[in-house]
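Priority: medium. Attachment 1 of 2:
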C-alpha cells in the first residue's frame, strides 16, 4: 500500500478492499457478473487484473478523498481516470452505504446483484429495504425478499403485507408482530404501521416492543409507545425513562 493512500482511515480501508476485491475478481468463475466500467472498449483494453500504476493510484486516491467528503460526482470522475473497472465499483459501494447520499432502491439492487459477495452486504440490504418504493410490485418484492431475507422493520412489514395479500394471513401476521417488536421505525412510518395493523397487534406485542426500545435506549420511540402498553408495563417504562434522565 502506498503511503499517501493510507493517510486517512477511510482511504486505507477502501484501498485495501479494492485490492482484495481485485484479486477475487481476477480468479472469479467465468460466469461471474462483470464489474461496471465506463464502456465495453474500456473493459477490454484494461481488464481487471488488480494492478494500478502510479497515475492510476493518484486518480484512485483522489476518488477516495472526494468520496470521504461526500462529493460523489468528483469521486466518480476521478475513479474513471484511474482507468480500472474496480475503481468505479469501490466508489459506488461507498456511496450506496453512506447515510448522507441520495440513493435509490434500483441502484442498490443492481449493485447487490452484480456484487453479491462484497463486504457490508447487510448494510446495503438495510438501505434497500428502507428505500423500496411503495409502488414496487408485490410479487417483485416477494422475489427480492426470497433472495435477501428482510433485516429491518420496514422490510419485514413489506414482506408481511405481501404475504397477507397472497392469503398467507397467519404467517404474515406473525411476521408483522416480529417487525413491530424488533424493528425500528421513524415516527411517521411508526404511526402508519399502528394505524394500518393495530388489529394484528396485542398488548403483549406492545409490551415486548417497549422493553426492547428501553434496553436499546431509544427513548423517543419508547415514550410514543407508552400509551399502547399495559398498565404495569407503562408504569415500569415511565420509571425506567425517569431513571435514565438522572
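Attachment 2 of 2:
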Amino acid at each position: 500500500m502506498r503511503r499517501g493512500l493510507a493517510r486517512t482511515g477511510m482511504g486505507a480501508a477502501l484501498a485495501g478492499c479494492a485490492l482484495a476485491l481485485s484479486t477475487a475478481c481476477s480468479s472469479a468463475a467465468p460466469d461471474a457478473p462483470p464489474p461496471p466500467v465506463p464502456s465495453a472498449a474500456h473493459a477490454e483494453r484494461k481488464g481487471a487484473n488488480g494492478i494500478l500504476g502510479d497515475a492510476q493510484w493518484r486518480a484512485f486516491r483522489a476518488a477516495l478523498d472526494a468520496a470521504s467528503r461526500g462529493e460523489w460526482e468528483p469521486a466518480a470522475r476521478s475513479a474513471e481516470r484511474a482507468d480500472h473497472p474496480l475503481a468505479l465499483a469501490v466508489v459506488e459501494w461507498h456511496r450506496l452505504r453512506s447515510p448522507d447520499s441520495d440513493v435509490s432502491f434500483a441502484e442498490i439492487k443492481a449493485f447487490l446483484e452484480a456484487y453479491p459477495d462484497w463486504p457490508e452486504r447487510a448494510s446495503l440490504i438495510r438501505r434497500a429495504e428502507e428505500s423500496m418504493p411503495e409502488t414496487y410490485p408485490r410479487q417483485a418484492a416477494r422475489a427480492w425478499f426470497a433472495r435477501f431475507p428482510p433485516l429491518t422493520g420496514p422490510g419485514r412489514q413489506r414482506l408481511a403485507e405481501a404475504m397477507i395479500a397472497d392469503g398467507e394471513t397467519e404467517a404474515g401476521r406473525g411476521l408483522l408482530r416480529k417487525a413491530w417488536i424488533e424493528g425500528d421505525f421513524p415516527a411517521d412510518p411508526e404511526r402508519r404501521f399502528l394505524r394500518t395493523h393495530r388489529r394484528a397487534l396485542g398488548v403483549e406485542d406492545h409490551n415486548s416492543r417497549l422493553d426492547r426500545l428501553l434496553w436499546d435506549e431509544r427513548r423517543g420511540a419508547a415514550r410514543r409507545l407508552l400509551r399502547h402498553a399495559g398498565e404495569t408495563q407503562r408504569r415500569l417504562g415511565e420509571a425506567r425513562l425517569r431513571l435514565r434522565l438522572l
